[in-house]
Design a protein that fits this description.
The chain is of the alpha/beta class and 238 residues long. Helix content is 42%, strand content 18%. The protein has a seven-stranded parallel β-sheet with strand order 3-2-1-4-5-6-7, with helices on both faces.
């Protein structure tokens, strides 16, 4: 059985990932993590329509709350001895002029985009790697790639994704002896609810479903070829 944790699974790329995995794999257990319990249940029902054999475990919590990492660990370790992949997909995209960003907004950005992948990976270490490899996939952004174009309003978001890229490189080195690979996919613009909320009226060239298909495949095989890499996956920036 292939076992995967997906954060931010109630909508956008996270939801599309869940649907892709149950379509792609006959024997899969997915841990779907998000704040909105109602939306998570809706995603679960959609997945079950595609595959009656897939096991869907929903975990409703806020990744801003430190207690959530213990909650997720408890649920996962009660059912699983090993995870094949952890996809840190949850993100917070704040588009606001620099002078209007307060400490609370800055802290929220970093809690979700940096602290959550750090602390959740740490919490799940007992079921990562070992005899069978685990692939930790951080969903980054082209805005977090040094030397790429930056855009007004993203002075909190882009640096947080740069920090995620740095975390990727650091953890890949630290965890490689445990048979854990860590990579970061720096995405360009994707048509999701999050993008629409931050940039009303903007239409990206890539759908959530198209990007999810790429990420799902990469999470299952990318660790055979990459570790500690920041890989650009974009037709355009932002």
């Amino acid at each position: 059985m292939t076992e995967v944790v997906i954060t931010g699974a109630s909508r956008g790329i996270g939801k599309a990932l869940a649907l892709d995995f149950v379509t792609r794999l006959k024997n899969v257990r997915l841990y779907l993590v998000a704040r909105d319990e109602k939306k998570l249940e809706e995603v679960k029902k959609e997945c079950q329509k595609i595959s009656a054999s897939a096991e869907l475990v929903t975990i409703s919590c806020s990744l801003e709350d430190e207690k959530s990492f213990t909650q997720i660990k408890t649920v996962v370790t009660e059912k699983s001895k090993h995870l094949d992949a952890v996809i840190h997909n949850a993100g917070f995209l704040l588009n606001r002029p620099f002078e209007q960003i307060d400490l609370a907004s800055l802290e929220k950005t970093y809690r979700i985009n940096v602290h959550a992948p750090y602390l959740l990976t740490q919490a799940l270490l007992p079921v990562l790697g070992g005899a069978t490899p685990t692939h930790v996939v951080n969903i980054g952004s082209m805005g977090g790639v040094q030397g790429q174009s930056k855009f007004p309003g993203l002075s909190a978001y882009s640096p947080s994704k740069m920090a995620l890229a740095g975390l990727t490189e650091s953890l890949a080195e630290e965890l490689k002896g445990r048979n854990i690979a860590v990579n970061c996919l720096a995405l360009g613009a994707v048509n999701t609810e999050m993008l629409a909320e931050a940039f009303p009226g903007y239409k990206a060239q890539v759908s959530a479903e198209e990007m999810a298909s790429y990420i799902a495949g990469f999470s299952l095989t990318g660790h055979r070829f990459y570790n500690g890499k920041i890989l650009s996956v974009a037709l355009s920036t932002p």
